[in-house]
Amino acid sequence: MERSNRIAQVYGYAVCLVAIITFLIAAAAIVNAAFNLSDPLRAEGFGRGASLTSFAAYKREQMQRAPAPAKAPNSAGGDSVAAAPNDKELRQMFDDERLDQIGNVRFRSMRTLVASLLMIVIASGLFFTHWRWLRREDLKS
User: Fold this and answer.
1) Cα–Cα distance between 82 and 69 in angstroms, integer?
2) Is 35 helix (H, G, I), strand (E, B) or coil?
3) What is the pLDDT of residues 105-116, one digit of tens each?
4) Total-model pTM
5) Dihedral of the CA atoms 6, 8, 12, 14 (nearest 10)?
6) Other CB atoms within 10 Å distance of the CB of residue 71
7) Between residues 33 and 84, which one has the greater pLDDT?
């Protein structure tokens, strides 16, 4: 009889330990998601490669990335240089990428928040249920 009680205690304490670890991991994920929501353009792990914090930085990066102008034949049969996007086109590209980045980060952060909160609720329920059960078992002994 004592052996089965010991096995039950080990099980109960193991579940409590796993619940505490799950709670701590979920709490860290909530903190990270909250920071990502507070500034989606600087969120870690969601970058597109181009700086979207300011138009000037975005323009500078696009100009550095642009290949050297190559000559391509135009419809008239002569040679013409491929045109780089003007400021208006660059601004539209910047705004589109910026909105896309903000939307993606907000969605992923909200998904992380909801999943982490759910994990905290489940872990708390498991912890308190098993902890009370262990206390009752100790009082019986």
Assistant:
1) 6
2) helix
3) 999 999 999 999
4) 0.71
5) 70
6) 10
7) 33
Please state the length of the chain: 141
HSE, CB side, 13 Å, CA atoms: give it for residue 74. 7
Domain ranges of the chain: 2-140
pLDDT at residue 71 is higher than 60: no
Strands (E), 37-81: 71-73, 79-81
Most confident of 48-52, 87-91, 124-128: 124-128
Question: Is residue 130 within 8 Å of residue 16, measured between CB atoms?
Answer: yes
Pairwise CA distance, residues 14 & 106, whole Å: 36
- Residue identified by tokens 């909801």 is 114
Q: How many contiguous H segments (helices) and E segments (strands) does the chain have?
A: 3, 2
| DSSP code at position 44 | T
Where residue 39 falls (left for φ over 0; alpha for ψ -120 to 50; beta otherwise) is: beta
Question: Helical H runs in 51-86?
Answer: 55-65
Q: What is the pLDDT of residue 32?
A: 94
d(C-alpha 37, C-alpha 14), whole Å: 34
Q: Is the confidence at residue 80, as pLDDT, over 60?
A: no
**Residue 81 structure tokens:** 């240089």
